[in-house]
Amino acid sequence: MSKTSFRPLHDRVVVRRVESEAKTAGGIIIPDTAKEKPQEGEIIAVGSGARDDSGKLVALEVKAGDRVLFGKWSGTEVKIDGEDLLIMKESDIMGILG
Questions:
Q1: pLDDT band at residue 2, thresholds of 50, 70 and 90?
Q2: Which DSSP symbol is given to 74?
Q3: CATH classification at residue 78
Q4: Where does this protein have coiled-coil stretches (predicted)?
């Protein structure tokens, strides 16, 4: 896991996409042009949390190192320290993979 110099604010997280296999279970090789962007990633950095209605800081459920699933169009693509990453809100994450 790489360490980034970027720290997201509030309830945002930084995610590195996890690339899918280049070959199917049946042995068919998928060219790069036919691959969809993966919807699975690893949390690289997390913000401090969101504030509830009373103003109390609520920590995020995800943490650096978690593998997560997110929606196809979730997040904003950015390049940080030469690496392609996504910045998204915790609410864009569908779940944590065991």
A1: low
A2: -
A3: 2.30.33.40
A4: none
